Amino acid sequence: MSLRMRIALGSVLVGLGVLALKYLAYVMTGSIALYSDALESIVNVASSVAALVAVWFASKPADSNHPYGHDKAEYFAAVLVGVMIVLAALSIFEAAWRGYTAPVPADYTWQGLAVNGLAGVINAVWAFVLVSFGRRNGSPALAADGRHLFTDVATSAAVLVGVALVWFTGWQQFDAVLAGLVGLNVLWSGWVLMKESVSGLMDEAASADVQERLRSLISEHGEGAIEAHDLRTRLAGKLTFVDFHLVVPGDMTVLAAHDICDRIEQAIGKAMPGARVTIHVEPEHKAKHSGIVVL
């Protein structure tokens, strides 16, 4: 089993453990805010399962039906996680409204709050692991799962602050108000996540910094060519697809042009291990005199 698969499986197990702790905290206190916190943890488990399936599917090698690989499967999982976050937020709003219109006194025992705090600490540590690993290894599904857990950590922290306010003010309905605020934060997080994931599905280009780095590499290692133009990039999970036109002298042999392409591809591959480069060679009369000038 690959490290990425083990990380994804670990998310499922951690999610189940945190869910059990948070639901126990809700049972011990009867707090609507803690109930909202536990409800979000159900989504954590479901999103972790979705990420596990996506990582497994994305790890499959390219085949005749998917010659560019299966990495985009992770974006579908990230979109699904975003949808589930939004659904969790709506459920939290419903519970908060019921708690506000018909408040039920909560029993904020230190044991219940300690259990909820422990769940928050576990989530914070694991969220950091997921986001760091996801960014380092180009896994949008695991990074999305980690960002979602960070919203859960914020939820737990807000709940503890809210509990202190309820205790100081004696206003029981603030418990429901706090749950509603948590729901707004969760809703916003889901929207941002879905927006980022859809960008990946729509073949969003690499960042400006990455494109500038590509231009420099082509210019530095394209000795013998005249220019390069129509540089295009797109992201697919951990992969970055790069294609451009390389203009060479009209009397250059195929072998010489091929050597230049190999040199450029090797330079890009060394600087960007996840790059997949396609170069279209053209004769000099195709030069646009507006692309990358080869040094």
TrEMBL record:
One Gene Ontology molecular-function label: zinc efflux antiporter activity
Domain Cation efflux protein cytoplasmic: 209-284
Membrane topology recorded in Swiss-Prot or TrEMBL: Multi-pass membrane protein
SUPFAM superfamilies: Cation efflux protein cytoplasmic domain-like, Cation efflux protein transmembrane domain-like
Segments forming domain Cation efflux protein transmembrane: 11-202
UniProt GO cellular component terms: plasma membrane
Gene3D superfamilies (UniProt xref): Cation efflux protein transmembrane domain, Cation efflux protein, cytoplasmic domain
Gene Ontology biological process: intracellular zinc ion homeostasis
Family: Belongs to the cation diffusion facilitator (CDF) transporter (TC 2.A.4) family.
Protein name in the entry: Protein p34
